[in-house]
Each structure stands twice: as structure tokens, then as C-alpha cells.
Amino acid sequence: MPVMKGLLAPQNTFLDTIAKRFDGTHSNFLLGNAQGSRGYPIVYCSDGFCELTSFARTEVMKKTCTCHFLHGPETSERVTQQVQKTLEGQREYQAEVRYYKKNGTPFWCLLDIVPIKNEKGEVVLFLFSFKDITDSYGKTPSIHTFVTEKMNQTVSNRNLSFFLCQNVFSKPTLPEYKVASVQKSRFILLHYSVCKALWDWLILLATFYVAVTVPYNVCFSSPDDSNHDEPECDSTSRSTIVSDIAVEMLFILDIILNFRTTYVGPAGQVVYDARSICLHYSATWFILDLIAALPFDLLYAFNVSVTSLVHLLKTVRLLRLLRLLQKLDRYSQYSAVVLTLLMSVFALLAHWLACVWYVIGRKELASNDPLTWDIGWLQELGKRLETPYTNGTTGGPSMRSAYIASLYFTLSSLTSVGFGNVCANTDAEKIFSICTMLIGALMHAVVFGNVTAIIQRMYSRRSLYHTRMKDLKDFIRVHRLPRQLKQRMLEYFQTTWSVNNGINANELLHDFPDELRADIAMHLNKDILQLPLFSSASRGCLRSLSLHIKTSFCAPGEYLIRHGDALHAHHFVCSGSLEVLKDGMVLAILGKGDLIGADLPGWDQVIKANADVKALTYCDLQYISIRALREVLELYPEYGSRFTEDLHHNLTYNLREVRPPLSVFLLCISSRRLFTLQLPVHDITGTVQPVQY
């Protein structure tokens, strides 16, 4: 699959921001609906609040945020009235109040109330913060006194809530309840941008340039080149100084850009924070890139005497080829690019072997008496070109002719058995030829002989991805879908593919034994099966339920359920957050671990949703259909009755439409008269109510 751009849709991260910015000892908070007309209901409660008060989240949700369920005989009536006035006036407030836990245990609490606004400046939520001060109350100066003194020392002429924001949150103001815009500096480069792609191609070409020139300069130069016995080699090195320095500057500039380039984090989110980018790059490729970018060629610019040792040090630049592996996934979606890279690697290998072949010939010349020994391949080449070696390594063919002959020999040995016009005569040359032919056989088998198999093996999943993407685009074009709907379809397809890589779990596990398939399903769905709702179910019941649980995904702004829809499943939130809306008001905010659905209906009943459920962030969901749930409960009747009773108490939010279902609907038309019948129907409480039709 192509490299992911990351999850780019704007998200409402208010819930995550609130939870993260509270420290570990002060994470007890509630969120209340400031737009409600009936007692400001609680729309979210943190795990810390549940631990502090011993109430379960399902017991707290939809109660009023004045927290009457925490009141007791010693709760101050004055504070209670002041809290009510604060909510009505949408102001900030702080007080010390005595509350009671679920078991009746009293505790002293520092209560803070802060209004939360949306992008329009309207107060939409109230943040209630609870801090247990039982241990310090009455023994040391009160928290209120300490906070006030600290505020006077550090923040003059500021109200108390601003000081709390500075100490509780990392920013001086509370986050707003709105879709968060991406905070990106203008100096941050997007990793998926066209400019970055072009830059990567430029760096790739520079890397191949280094892979070609460095071995050539190392092998086609000798320690006595500085004596100018063969000035051609020195002039060759000098002729590439400008391009070598330019490549070094490119590598150094690439390091700087990598410190300012976004990346995709482990959770799939695009990381824009400069500090996180620097730490990530420093921990991954920085050391290798730094070594490969050492400016050895600046020695030429300062007229420093350069020996072959410097050329050997420059071989560390070949480490840059490892960066090619990082980018192969991006390039591999294009078949032509893959073939080009394979051919380039083959040619690069032939170039390296040609350099080694020349070094072997030079060493044979230097280690034998030229008057009695003349069977080396370089001497044979010199004789044919009528440029023989006269005194050791003096004379002989030009570097250009020697390199072309070396490359010709290695390519002919890699692709065939050679033609004999350039042949191995000495033992060292024959050993090298044997190794070259073995490498050539391997290259034939890996690159040329199996190129089709390689492409099919590497791109079977990618081919399926592109096939489905093409089908999707053809469908959009044929039916002329609007641009917005087209974008939503493409984003959903790409994101879900990145999650499951196009693998249909049901299809994949279809041929597995039922026992193994059930164990796998229980492992995959262990989060939802650990809910208290299923605590009394037998293992066999859980295994049957796990086989019917499916996964779903919802992007920010997408509706999971709309008001009036027939409810077909119960949904469990694995990650992300959603909001429950009705008439534009937030009724509840759902996060990880919440269960949303409705009471289990009868076989002849259809439940309609009483609100919209909309995703705030990217959400991973698990769901089980009501029909499948009924089938399993029929197999385990001893658990079915218990489940029906517990379901109502374990739903974080109940979407059941409060409307009496019709048991009978009869319409009689005769002689152009409409007869109305008054039929008894049962409401949700079981009471018989006459309804006229």
C-alpha cells in the first residue's frame, strides 16, 4: 500500500486535552451541559471521579451536575445555592464543600467550576473539578488560602480561575469545545507534500552519484598519484570536486530539513510538533546521515594534500544507501520505478566489481617483474591498444579505456560467461571471475529470472488496493457523486484499509476450526467482553458472542447513528470520542470503554434512536447486532434474563426512543369515509394507553 499521509481530518480533541492536562492527583472532573434546560445534565465523568466517589459512570451520566447525589446531612446549603446561581450566571466559582461517597463516607472537597466556550464564544459546557482535601482540611491552611496567596505572589490582578488554568493546564486558557485546527509552523515541511517528494528524488540521485564516484575514486587512484606519474587520475579527482561538494551540501541541507519534516506517529497521527520531530529524527537516522555528510571534499578547496586514505574515508557515504530502504515502500507502488531501481542496483553492482577488477590488475602489475611477467589482463589490454607498460606501472592504457574494459568484463561475466577478449589469466583474476559468475547466476535468479514473481509477490496486496480504489473511483464517476461525498468515501476507504490492510477477518478465519476461531475472536474482542455486562456469562456464551462481534471505524464529523434511525446493534468505543446530539445540544460525550445502544427489544419491536451520535475524533468501534444477540441469548436462557436486566444499567447512554410502539394499526376506508378507531397500546412502562387513529 502507498505510504500513509497520516490521519489529517480535523478533530475535536477537547476530551483528550482535558484528560491529559490534569495531573495524576487532580484528574477528578465532570463535564455538564450548559445549554440544557433541565438541570444541566452531566455529559462526561472521568475515571478519577468514579474512584473518588465510588459511583460507576453509568450511575453518574445524565444526572445534574449540581451533584445532589453527593449531598449529605453536613453539605452546606449555602454552597449548594451558590453553585446553582453560578450555573445560571455561567460564571466561575470555587469553594470547599463536604460531600459523601456512595457508601456514605464523607470527605472534604475543593470544588472548582469553570465554563467552557465554543468557537462562537457561547458557553456550552461546565467543567467541575473535584480535589480531595480531607487529609489537609483543618490541619494546615486551607487550599483556598494557599491558592490565593500563591496567586498574589505570581499573578497580580488576575482572577482565581486564570491562576488555576496556569497551574492545572499547560496553557494559560482552557481549551475550547470545537474542532481543533492544526497548529503547524510555516517552517514545518509536510512529509507527503510534492516538494518533499521531489526533494527525496533529488537525494536519491545524489546517493547513486556517491555510490558511483566514491568506489571509482578509491580504486582508480594510487598512493603515488600525487607524484603525477599518472596525472590523469589526479585531474579526474579534481574535475569532480564541484559536484562532490554540491552533493555534500545537499546531504547537510537534507539533515536540516529532516529536523523540520513531519512524520506519522505510532497512532497514525501526523506529528507537527518541532520538538517531537527533532527527537524522532535524532533517535532514527540522524547519526547515519551525519556520518555520510562529512565534508571530506573541502580538503580540495583548501589545497590540502589528498591521499587515497581520504578516498577510503569517503566510503562511509555508502551508508546513505540504507536510506533507500526507508523509501522503497513509497516507490514500490510504481512498477516502472521498481524495475528501474532493480536495474540500477544491478548496474551499480557491475560498477563496483569493475573497480575491484581494476585494482586486482594494478596489484598484479606492482607485485611482479614486468620484464618476465606479462600475462595480466591490464598488460594484455595495453598490448592490444598499443600502449604497453614500460616500467612497472608506467604507461599502459588510459584510465578511461581501463574502466570501460573493466565494466565490459564484469557485465559480460554477470550476464553470460564472457567472450574471451578480456579474460582472466592469473590465479587472482580467475578466482575473482569465478566469484563474479556466481554472483551473476544469483542476480539472474533473483532479478531477471523471477522479476515477474517478485512483482506479484510484493504487490499482490497493493494490486488489490489499487483495483478496489479504481472500482471506487469508477463508481463515483459513473454515478456522478458530489465532491464532498466523494471525499468522504475515499478517506473512509483509505483509512479502513490502513487499519486492516484489506484483510477480511471473517473470510480469513472461515476455514479454521470452530474452537480455534472462537479463541481468536475472544482475543480480538477481549475489551468489550470484559465489560461488567458480560461478567456473569459462561465461557461458552462469551465464545458464541465473540463470533458475532464485528469492528467498525468512524472518521471525525461522521454520524454513527442519526435521530430516528432503527437501532440494529450495540456499539462499544475502543478508542476516540463521540458526542450525542439532539437539537444541536450535547447530551453526552462518549470515550474509550463506553457502551451505547438501547434496551433489548422484543422480536416484534423496532427501537428508534432518540438522538444523533457523531464522531469527534477517529474512532475504532466494536458492535454486535441485536439479531445476533437474541440468537445467542436463546441458546443460554439462564444468562439471557440477567443480561436483559443488566443492559439498562450498563449502557453509558440509552438511545431508546420514548414513544409507545403501535401494537395494532388498522385503517378502514369505505364509501369515501375514514373511520377512526381507538385502540389500546402499551407504552414503555407497560401501562395501557388509548390512542386514537
UniProtKB/TrEMBL annotation:
Question: What is an annotated GO biological process for this record, any one?
Answer: regulation of membrane potential
Please list the GO terms describing molecular function: voltage-gated potassium channel activity
For the keyword Phosphoprotein, the answer is no
The PAS domain extends over: 14-90
Q: Which InterPro entries match?
A: cNMP-bd_dom, cNMP-bd_dom_sf, Ion_trans_dom, K_chnl_volt-dep_EAG/ELK/ERG, K_chnl_volt-dep_ELK, KCNH_animal-type, PAC, PAS
| One Pfam family from the record | Ion_trans
- Name the reaction it catalyses: K(+)(in) = K(+)(out)
The text of the family note is: Belongs to the potassium channel family. H (Eag) (TC 1.A.1.20) subfamily. Kv12.3/KCNH4 sub-subfamily.
What biological function has been recorded for the protein in this entry? Pore-forming (alpha) subunit of a voltage-gated delayed rectifier. Activates at more negative voltages, exhibits fast prepulse-independent activation kinetics and deactivates much more slowly, but shows no inactivation.
Name by which UniProt lists this protein: Voltage-gated delayed rectifier potassium channel KCNH4
Organism from which the protein derives: Astyanax mexicanus (Blind cave fish)
